[in-house]
Amino acid sequence: MADNASSRVDTPTNISLSAAVADSLEYKTVSVFLVLLVCSVGIVGNVMVVLVVLTARHMRTPTNCYLVSLAIADLTVLVAAGLPNVSDSLTGTWVFGHAGCLGITYLQYLGINVSSCSITAFTVERYIAICHPMKAQTVCTVSRAKRIIAGVWLATCVYCMLWFFLVDIQVKEDGHVLCGYKVKRELYLPIYLIDFAIFYVVPLLLAIVLYGLIARILYLRCSPATLVHREERGPGSPVAPVPLQVTKMLAVVVILFALLWMPYRTLVLINSFVSAPYLDDWFILFCRTCIYANSAINPVIYNAMSQRFRSAFRGLYRCRRLDAHQRTLSVVQAGFGTMREPRGGKNRETQVILKKRS
């Protein structure tokens, strides 16, 4: 019993590589249903975000470039963490081998960390765009956003290579295979704390400060004194438009990121210091579902709060339906032409014979 508890302590508490999987049919049914539902919605939604930004020219803005980076990171989390969780729930053992253990763990943390960095990037971009509109004309550009995104992905790819040296296949006494840490708890504890600080605490603190400054600027622009000053300048005086709708939408994304990641981050932080970690299967399932929901809910927010995204999603759907209709029409026309061809050929032969006789 003591050995089992020790193995649970030294096993990573990340989002898909749990130490124990409940064998009850109820747990497996609920787990598989929730994960498949959330991951399916998230994969479809994030793919649509990438497609509408890449195919619609008017959607290629600096903010949307960061949202594409966030969508790709969320797709990585859903595919590398959510889908393997289904096999974990069904079989109760790791089925992807040593290479899968290394690769899937790497992709999990890559998606998680890039997601956090993308949120930080568009938060800074919103701050510059609203609080420093003159500077934003040269700083907040699509080309600069692409360079920042490339740098974020490159730096995070290098940072996450650390996980290649921390995880390995473990075989328990009952024959179950786990993908877990091959180092002691004391060695991976600093890594968890560094991840917690860099990719959760710092982005949230920065977001709180920057959105507080944004709210102050928006309040001052809408204050009675500012409105009177604009009236004194006359109706023709230029007033810089404030993209309030986009700012509200991104603020909601940040808030949900903080709330949905809080259960898992809190669990890891507490388990890092207590002697007997809390590893209840149902609570771990709740934490995982919150993480998958965070990666799946962003396209829903865009559709609900952004008129431009909503129109782009509808346009993408109509284009797909139009393409399918055109392909069907082409097939029908081709088949109809093939059916008429022999008759046309026979008529031409008859005309040639009649001409020769005449």
Describe it.
This is Thyrotropin-releasing hormone receptor. Belongs to the G-protein coupled receptor 1 family. This protein has 358 residues and is mostly helical. Helices cover 78% and strands 3% of the residues. It is built from eleven helices and two strands. The chain has helices spanning 2-9, 25-55, 62-91, 97-131, 133-139, 142-160, 185-221, 224-233, 244-271, 281-305, 307-357, and strands at 167-171, 177-181. It has a two-stranded antiparallel sheet with strand order 1-2. α3 packs parallel to α6, α4 crosses α9 (244-271) and α9 (244-271) runs antiparallel to α10 (281-305).
List the helices and strands and how they pair.
Layout: H1 2-9, H2 25-55, H3 62-91, H4 97-131, H5 133-139, H6 142-160, E1 167-171, E2 177-181, H7 185-221, H8 224-233, H9 244-271, H10 281-305, H11 307-357
Antiparallel strand pairs: 1-2
